[in-house]
# Entry
Amino acid sequence: MAGCDFGTAEQSGATLTIKTASFDSGVAYRDQHLLGAGFLDADTYPEIRFESSTVSYRAQDEVVVTGDLTVRGVTRPVEITWQMSGPVTDQYGADRVAFHGELPIKRSDFGITWSEMLNTGGAVLSDRLTIELDIEATPAAADAESHS
# Structure
C-alpha cells in the first residue's frame, strides 16, 4: 500500500510487502537454493516488508523514501531513491504513477551469511547486492471504483 501526495511529501508514505516465495530469477535450481534456509528461508519468513518513515522529493521525478526493511525477521533502516514516471491516465480513467528504485544492501546485515570460497580464494557470492523494485501506483479510491 502506498500513498503519494504530489504537493506535500509529508503526506506520502508506503508499506510494501513481498511474498518471499514469489522470488523468480528465471533459473529454477538457483531459486530453490535462494528460497531455502541458507538464504531467504521462505518457509520460515514468508514475507519481506518495507515500512516508510519519511518521504522527500529531491527533484520533480526523484523521490527519496527512508524506512525499515525487514528480511528474515531482521529489520534495518534503509533509504531508497525512486525515479518516478507519470502520472498518466490509464484505461479506467485513474491516474497511475510508475516508480523504479534500487536499494543496495549487505545481505549479512539481514542474517544471510551463506558463502563458499572458490579454489582461487574469492567468494562465490558477494555480501553486497542491489534490490531492484518496479512499482505502479494508483489512487486507492479510484482503483477500487474502476474494478467494481
About this structure: The two ends are 19 Å apart (CA to CA). Helices lie at 28-35, 140-146. The longest helix spans residues 28-35. Residues 142-148 have pLDDT under 50 and may be disordered.
